[in-house]
């Protein structure tokens, strides 16, 4: 008879859940993860990771097409979508196995099944065939059930002609014409992928800018570059109707001025956001409260039901894997009573989008900072002024920094251009350690690197830029 | 665990007070009911009685500390059987409770292995201080002492939220804010004052001992320091104020005048304008630099029950006489009611003390530190003067300026007096 009683039980083995489980095991808790589908969750299997694999293929394809610019020649450049997808799936599979191994190594019990709260520290579990497994009990239950694609009424995905990210990651055909609804991270990454491989892609965004959470200036630089490469972008526009044919969809798009146009495409990707998985997990058996589809928690993941916690996407935005992981660690360490555990500072959570060009940011946009009453100093440095960027053949992009004029606090950093997703964490550390502009100015950045632009952007905010 | 002895609240509105005296030393045995300390606010003094018995293990807040927040730990009492090792790591941060309360209070479900979360405590003096650059800068800008702020960051590092919590709670001040200021020379004793029971009083008549209020103690401390440490020198000038009086009569006699300008209002205005003309006198001395203020904020000494206070007419030079008059009346009334806000009596750049209404002809004042000068204003009275070789009668007022010679020299002070005299004798130039 297997163990059914645990110190900490986590429902959901995504990045929030499995990281929380490993941390809990490290702290000596007898820990269990109940996962209904894949360890690693959406992130590893249907999100962050497989899309990066696809985008890497697209990136290399792009370089091969532009080999001439580097003095190289590549003839008959082509791609095999089956193999591109195959590589992406293999990457997910490898990492999925890795998570299982890590949990085993840390002696975390993994139960394949769907967990449901019964109240009073009890969880019922059913396996994938709907058969009931023995009930489990735990002193602490962490809900980490994640999120799923949001559906707009009338524009629901059907998995055939209208895709969510699931189908877009494993397409039945390579669409010659594609329309993407929504220009958040998911939408713009898929748009970038299919566009780079040669599809005729139109992105429709209801807000005034693509990637609406990003700084307006950064978004504008990204848009200009995307449009230059031939990607079609419509902002302040919405898809009002999808008329499905046998193997095509005619989309009615209404623009700001009230005019409508019809665009016929092979496939549509609906990427209008995600919503928390709060249903079917037995919340009704507890005092757990929800708000706008997410579980209400305090800074340590605690819900209104003693002994029940929530982390990650199901506990509210920003719905990012790294936020889920960190919340999981905080939650478990708080349960343990470790000293020095602080709620996550949402202003210090970076965001990365792997479209072409890449976008990365942390903290307040210039507009948000002003809205919050800060007097700001803003620094900007273009890729054009950076030696490494020129050597790489990547002269387009911008590094922007926003400081509080009064205290020199770094309020936000925003970047667009090659490799910026790997640069942003430098500013994240700076913000976390509460450096001021002075410390950043005194920091030696290695030459020649793209990171020098971070330095120059800070210098620019204080009128001391050197290379521009 | 040692027992925390907390700063008591003497009244529901009290937020901080002075720890006036310790009646027990570290190591003294304490019985329940023993008076262990005296706490004072500007309103009252109260004895603190021990609630529990034990040994006074550590005095956290030394005698004479001002601005001690209510509910902060002032001492630790060792229970029976505890020795001083129990004091190590004791939580002495009770005063920071409001800041910590910012976290949402949730019932904590029974933890599998609960461990107490040590509350951060301020660093003892001399230890290396860990603080984020941003925390250092904000503390510097706000005049907070980082050593007095408990750090909640990794390994007790002081971070922005700690400084902001200290700011919000009003703790961590580098220099206790001055509660009141200088005034006329009711010269406080320069040497340490004798105690009430001193034999020197033995043959003197019977007396009533009026305990020193906080304000009295501050007056004593600050003016003793000022008289002892600041090299004062005085300049005197007689000013004919007949034209000023005529102008005053004219202004006050106008139809519909809803103001009544006093001679002192003219003096306030004239001093502010003269300071503007002689910015070297609108100054404060520090060991590193002379601070020359860019605005003349004139403190006006006001006698209040049990002492005096110096409310400020800010930027008096740019105010009209009616506005000055109105502001001075409002501040004096607030001062007498004890309702001045700190910013209304802290931070002036120059002080005026006027005892003319008592018929005093002239007097010297002690500088109100950190200011560089103070003007003593005597009564305006008719005096014989010589004009064009003939004896005449004029209304004359004697002014005495005391300045800090460390930052203001004789000729500089004289130039100021010259400007001041010129304005007061010819007040119409204030229109220019």
Task: Give an overview in words.
The complex is a heterodimer of chains A (468) and B (432). Chain A has 13 helices and 24 strands. Chain A has 468 residues and is an alpha/beta fold. Chain A has three domains: 5-149 and 275-336, FAD/NAD(P)-binding domain (3-Layer(bba) Sandwich); 162-272, FAD/NAD(P)-binding domain; 357-461, Enolase-like, domain 1 (2-Layer Sandwich), CATH 3.30.390. In chain A, strands 1, 2, 3, 4, 5, 6 and 19 form a seven-stranded mixed β-sheet that branches. A five-stranded parallel β-sheet of chain A has the order 8-15-9-10-11. A five-stranded antiparallel β-sheet of chain A has the order 20-21-24-23-22, with helices on both faces. The longest helix of chain A has 25 residues, at 81-105. Chain A is globular and about 65 Å long. Chain B has 432 residues and is an alpha+beta fold. Chain B folds into three domains: 1-87, Beta Barrel (OB fold (Dihydrolipoamide Acetyltransferase, E2P)), CATH 2.40.50; 121-176, E3-binding domain (Dihydrolipoamide Transferase), CATH 4.10.320.10; 230-431, Chloramphenicol acetyltransferase-like domain (Chloramphenicol Acetyltransferase), CATH 3.30.559. Chain B has helices spanning 97-100, 133-142, 160-169, 214-229, 242-252, 263-277, 321-336, 342-345, 410-425, and strands at 3-6, 16-22, 29-30, 35-40, 45-49, 54-59, 65-69, 73-78, 232-240, 283-285, 290-292, 298-300, 302-304, 307-309, 312-313, 350-354, 373-387, 390-404. The termini of chain B are far apart.
């Amino acid at each position: 008879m297997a163990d059914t009683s645990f110190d900490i039980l986590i429902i959901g083995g995504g990045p929030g859940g499995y990281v929380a489980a490993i941390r809990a095991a490290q702290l000596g808790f007898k820990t269990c993860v109940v996962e209904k589908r894949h360890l690693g969750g959406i992130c590893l299997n249907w999100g962050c990771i497989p899309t990066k694999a696809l985008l890497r293929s697209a990136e290399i394809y792009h370089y091969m097409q532009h080999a001439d610019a580097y003095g190289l020649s590549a003839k008959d450049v082509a791609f095999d979508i089956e193999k591109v997808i195959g590589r992406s799936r293999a990457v997910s599979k490898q990492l999925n196995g890795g998570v299982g191994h890590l949990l085993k190594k840390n002696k975390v019990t993994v139960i394949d099944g769907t967990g449901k709260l019964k109240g009073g520290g009890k969880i019922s579990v059913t396996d994938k065939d709907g058969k009931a497994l023995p009930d489990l009990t735990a002193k602490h239950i962490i809900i980490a059930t994640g999120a799923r694609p949001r559906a707009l009424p009338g524009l629901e995905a059907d998995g055939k002609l209208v895709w969510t990210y699931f189908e877009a990651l494993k397409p039945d055909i390579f669409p010659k014409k594609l329309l993407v609804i929504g220009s958040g991270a998911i939408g713009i990454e898929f748009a970038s992928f299919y566009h780079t491989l040669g599809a005729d892609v139109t992105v429709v965004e209801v807000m005034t800018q693509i990637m609406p959470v990003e700084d307006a200036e950064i978004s504008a630089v990204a848009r200009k570059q995307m449009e230059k490469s031939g990607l079609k972008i419509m902002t302040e526009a919405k898809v009002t109707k999808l008329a499905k044919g046998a193997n095509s969809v005619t989309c009615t798009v209404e623009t700001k001025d009230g005019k409508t146009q019809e665009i016929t495409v092979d496939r549509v990707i609906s990427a209008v956001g995600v919503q928390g998985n709060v249903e079917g997990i037995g919340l009704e058996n507890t005092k757990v409260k929800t708000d706008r589809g997410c579980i209400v928690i305090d800074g340590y993941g605690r819900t209104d039901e003693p002994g029940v916690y929530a982390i990650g996407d199901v506990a509210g935005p920003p719905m990012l894997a790294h936020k889920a992981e960190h919340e999981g660690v905080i939650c478990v360490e708080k349960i343990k009573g470790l000293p020095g555990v602080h709620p996550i500072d949402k202003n210090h959570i970076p965001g990365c989008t792997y479209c072409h060009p890449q976008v990365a940011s942390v903290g307040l946009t210039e507009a948000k900072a002003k809205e919050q009453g800060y007097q700001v100093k803003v620094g900007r440095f273009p890729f054009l002024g950076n030696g490494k960027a020129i050597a790489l053949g990547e002269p387009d992009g911008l590094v922007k920094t926003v400081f509080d004029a009064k205290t020199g606090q770094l309020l936000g950093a925003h970047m667009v251009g090659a490799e910026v997703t790997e640069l942003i964490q430098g500013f994240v550390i700076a913000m976390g350690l509460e450096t001021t502009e002075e410390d950043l100015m005194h920091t030696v950045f290695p030459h020649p690197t793209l990171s020098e632009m971070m330095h120059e952007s800070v210098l620019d905010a204080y009128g001391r830029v050197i290379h521009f | 665990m040692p027992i925390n002895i907390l700063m008591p609240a003497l009244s529901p509105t009290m937020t901080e007070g002075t720890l006036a005296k310790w009646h027990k030393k570290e190591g003294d045995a304490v019985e329940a009911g023993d008076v262990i300390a005296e706490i004072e606010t500007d309103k009252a003094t109260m004895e603190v009685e021990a609630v529990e018995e034990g040994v006074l293990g550590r005095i956290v807040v030394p005698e004479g500390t001002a601005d001690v927040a209510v509910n902060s730990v002032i001492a630790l009492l060792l229970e029976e059987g505890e020795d001083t090792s129990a004091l190590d790591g004791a939580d002495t941060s009770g005063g920071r409770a409001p800041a910590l309360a910012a976290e949402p209070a949730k019932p904590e479900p029974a933890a599998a292995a609960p461990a107490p979360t040590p509350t951060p405590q301020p660093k003892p003096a001399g230890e290396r201080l860990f603080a984020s650059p941003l925390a250092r800068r904000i503390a510097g800008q706000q005049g907070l002492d980082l050593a007095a702020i408990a750090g909640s960051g990794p390994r007790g590092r002081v971070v922005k939220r700690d400084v902001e919590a200290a700011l919000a709670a009003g703790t961590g001040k580098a220099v206790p804010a001055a509660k009141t200021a200088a005034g006329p020379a009711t010269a406080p004793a320069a040497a340490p004052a004798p105690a009430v029971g001193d034999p020197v009083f033995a043959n003197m008549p019977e007396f009533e001992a009026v305990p020193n209020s906080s304000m009295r103690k501050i007056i004593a401390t600050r003016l003793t320091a000022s008289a002892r440490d600041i090299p004062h020198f005085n300049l005197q000038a007689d000013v004919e104020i007949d034209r000023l009086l005529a102008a005053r009569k004219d202004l006050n006699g106008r139809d519909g005048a809803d103001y009544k300008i006093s001679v002192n209002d003219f003096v306030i205005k004239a001093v502010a304008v003269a300071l503007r003309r002689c910015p070297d006198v609108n100054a404060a001395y520090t060991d590193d630099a002379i601070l020359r203020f860019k605005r003349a904020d004139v403190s006006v000494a006001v006698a209040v029950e049990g002492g005096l206070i110096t409310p400020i007419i800010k930027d008096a030079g740019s105010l009209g006489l009616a506005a000055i008059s109105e502001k001075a009346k409002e501040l004096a009334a607030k001062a007498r009611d004890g309702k001045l806000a700190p910013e209304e009596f802290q931070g002036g750049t120059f002080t005026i003390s006027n005892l003319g209404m008592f018929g005093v002809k002239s007097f010297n004042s002690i500088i109100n530190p950190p200011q560089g000068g103070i003007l003593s204003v005597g009564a305006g009275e008719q005096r014989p003067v010589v004009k064009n070789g003939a004896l005449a009668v004029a209304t004359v007022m004697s002014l005495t300026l005391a300045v800090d010679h460390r930052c203001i020299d004789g000729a500089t002070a004289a130039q100021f007096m010259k400007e001041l005299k010129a304005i007061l004798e010819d007040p119409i130039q204030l229109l220019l």
